[in-house]
Design goal:
single chain, Rossmann fold, 5-stranded parallel sheet, 4-stranded mixed sheet, binds adenosine-5'-diphosphate, binds guanosine-5'-monophosphate
């Protein structure tokens, strides 16, 4: 395998703005790849099969589960969603950063297998705003909206498992915070050690050549 790309997990209660923020993040980091999940949820009108999700029927999903094709999968709001090994392998083999939009159960499962993954939780500024955004998006029936809203509270309780919390109040500000997290994670000593080691090797070579960088 080539160099290991960084995994960024972005998670939020439905309607907090995770999809919007992920799109903006991908515009800012074009080399980052989006992990396209499989789901049994019906496609929304603006969604594109293969870009937003791989939309599959229940039998296909079940067959993939049986065949061990998923790194993780979970029931979310009455449908099944999963991240395939193929999706992860493709990004990691290229050494590219991968952005995963999964629920908190998926986040926990991925981190068990990839402890180095960075997990970010997006919070709405208030529950009233969360409900309003879900309504305004216009994708939910009254029943699915209530289900997603009820589930939001359970999801927010999972916040301690995340590395970063981002409140999505002002969209531009939240995008900046998210970009800052990506830069900060890239600057971690463990990921950048080679930059310092290279300088030390250069200094050792200078010393061997009689040009002691410490002298003078
Ligand atoms: P999620 O993917 O978390 O379910 P979406 O990204 O679909 O949420 O956002 C839900 C709705 O809220 C969408 O209509 C989106 O345009 C809107 N939205 C997202 N972020 C903000 C924000 N910071 N301010 C106002 N509206 C927002
Ligand atoms: P939506 O139906 O609004 O697109 O997504 C509903 C929820 O499913 C979101 O919390 C989203 O993050 C989650 N989800 C999307 N893909 C996956 C996946 O592959 N695995 C898991 N566990 N959750 C996912």
């Amino acid at each position: 395998m080539g160099p290991i790309g960084q995994l960024f997990i972005v998670c939020s209660p439905s309607g907090a703005g995770k999809t919007t923020l992920c799109r903006k993040l991908l515009e800012r980091f074009p080399e980052m790849r989006f992990s396209v999940s499989h789901t049994t949820r019906p496609r929304r009108p603006q969604e594109v099969d293969g870009r937003d999700y791989h939309f599959v029927d229940a039998a296909t999903f079940e067959r993939m589960v049986e065949a061990g094709e998923f790194v993780e999968w979970a029931w979310v709001h009455g449908n099944r969603y999963g991240t395939s090994h193929a999706e992860l392998r493709a990004a990691l083999a290229e050494g590219r950063a991968l952005l995963l939009d999964v629920d908190f159960q998926g986040a926990a499962q991925i981190r068990q297998q990839y402890p180095g993954a960075t997990a970010v939780f997006i919070l709405p500024p208030s529950l009233a705003v969360l409900r309003e955004r879900l309504q305004r998006r216009g994708t939910e029936t009254p029943e699915t909206l209530e289900l997603r809203f009820r589930n939001a509270l359970r999801e927010i309780e999972a916040y301690p498992q995340f590395d970063y919390l981002v409140v999505n109040d002002d969209l531009d500000r939240a995008v900046e915070v998210l970009c800052g997290i990506v830069w900060a994670e890239r600057a971690r000593r463990t990921r950048q050690a080679e930059a310092a080691e290279g300088l030390l090797r250069e200094a050792a070579a200078l010393r061997r050549g009689g040009n002691d960088p410490d002298a003078g």
